[in-house]
# Entry
Amino acid sequence: MTQDQLKQAVAEAAVEYIRPKLYRDSIVGVGTGSTAALFIDELGKIKDEFKGAVASSDASARQLEDLGIEVYDLNSVNELIVYVDGADESNPQLELIKGGGAALTREKIVTAVAKEFICIADESKWVRVLGDFPLPVEVIPMARSYVARQLVKMGGRPIYREGVVTDNGNVILDVYDFDIPEPRKTETAINQIPGVVTNGLFALRPADVLLLGSADGVKEIHPGMT
Ligand code: 5RP
# Structure
């Protein structure tokens, strides 16, 4: 199977996974990226079974609206029954690297609100130790050089993602060659640097379940299972 077919398979599996949890007043949290986009398309097919969605990016909000799904501001929502999103890497604890699509801050906020975080990914995202994928860090523009110097002191090699401005008006530093044996500690430490909005480690709030697309089918993985 191609990577795109694996992404399609997990998008369909995610809809089947959440469907029994939905009721007519449910608001679904929806992520960003190519896998999340396939999920949104599948969600459109059952749009009469829930009330609407909160999106983690302007792009996902537009896609939802185009499908006729009502998009809500997170501030007007009391409860998100689930949040479904892709990832750039997942380890067996379902600690993630996210932010390849530069939507990490809103993704982290929506994740924090959701009762259940369902990660969907193809098997290329499965790793034992996080860090092969460069870690995205969203930074207030005036702090870019300062934050980069601090990240170098922490052992990383930050590269400015040229030409990218986040939905929040900020910039992204991608940190290469970064060892992340203790993701929770690294997530906390980077977020202490003045000027950092947040970083793409989702370890303090990992996923609750990972639907992983593989040649053997979609595997349902819970933290620490393998
Ligand atoms: C966007 C993200 C995405 O979930 C992540 O980059 C995975 O994207 P894709 O599904 O296209 O591989 O974190 O900020």
Residues 3-18 form the longest helix (16 residues). The two ends are 23 Å apart (CA to CA). Helices lie at 3-18, 34-44, 58-66, 104-113, 144-153, 183-191.
